[in-house]
Specification:
oxidoreductase activity, SDR_fam, NAD(P)-bd_dom_sf, alpha/beta, Sc_DH/Rdtase_CS, Rossmann fold, single chain
Length: 262
């Protein structure tokens, strides 16, 4: 594996795809900073890294603006510049709308969407000032669940749709200075998807997801989506006429709901 030599801050690195991506990037001798709410989780990931370089552990609750500011300031005292930020933080509590609680709404919006706006607000002025070398990278992980309104997927899907919109705007407004990328995974085997009680087509491991992201980091692509055999189907569904889409998914939802009641 080729050396990467980039300084990378991964937010949401204590588990799931974020942890697997940290392990993958460490093999390239990238300088790494890992952030998440779970200190124990971050330390566990750090122990798995194959790197000769020091790894920074900076715990952070991304829903707290001041904590993000503090971590960003601390990071800039350790590194002369930050080459890449990968936002992998997220919570997942999908449900039908009649079962969505206020707590689920607040947590999903705070972690999945509001914190992404916070991050942009905190780091963008400094990222836009970087003039030497390659463009700095700003990468966000959303989901194909954000492509269209899906039954039994709220409030998660709505926050991911908002995140997709935010990242597309970022690419439009600052893409000439910053390499903005969007990650849209399908089903990945994590502690979050373990909550699902339905069949997940084309599900892949966190290691496979991390490899797909790593392979696309230096590409000119805006969107990194995987596994392709599933995400291309979701893209086709995204462009179905509204009448077809609502008829099909309403029927599938009603069929599934009836089966669950038996």
């Amino acid at each position: 594996m080729e050396k990467d030599h980039k300084s990378t801050w991964i937010i949401g690195a204590s588990s799931g795809i974020g942890a697997a991506l940290a392990i993958e990037l460490a093999k390239t001798q990238s300088s790494l900073c890992l952030s998440a709410r779970s200190v124990a989780g971050l330390e566990e990931v750090k122990m798995q890294l194959e790197s000769d370089l020091p790894v920074l552990i900076l715990p952070c609750d991304v829903s707290q603006y001041q904590e993000l500011q503090q971590v960003w300031q601390t990071l800039n005292t350790h590194w002369s510049k930050v080459d890449r930020i990968i936002f992998m933080a997220g919570v997942y509590s999908p449900s039908q709308l009649t079962n969505v609680s206020k707590e689920m709404i607040d947590e999903s919006i705070d972690i999945n969407l509001k914190s992404a706006f916070y991050l942009v607000n905190v780091i963008l002025p400094d990222f836009l000032k970087q003039k030497t070398g390659k463009k700095p990278q700003l990468i966000f992980c959303a989901s194909v669940a954000g492509y269209r309104g899906l039954p039994m997927a709220q409030p998660y899907a709505a926050t991911k749709a908002g995140l997709i919109n935010l990242v597309e705007t970022l690419r439009t407004e600052v893409g000439h200075h910053i390499d903005v990328k969007l990650i849209n995974p399908g089903f990945v085997e994590t502690r979050l998807t373990a909550k699902n009680n339905f069949y997940m087509p084309a599900k892949i491991s966190t290691e496979q997801a991390a490899q797909a992201i790593f392979n696309a980091l230096e590409s000119k692509k805006f969107e990194i989506h995987f596994p392709k055999r599933f995400t291309y189907i979701m893209k086709i569904i995204r462009w179905l006429p509204d009448t077809w889409y609502f008829r099909w998914f309403s029927k599938k939802y009603q069929t599934g709901a009836s089966a669950n009641e038996k």
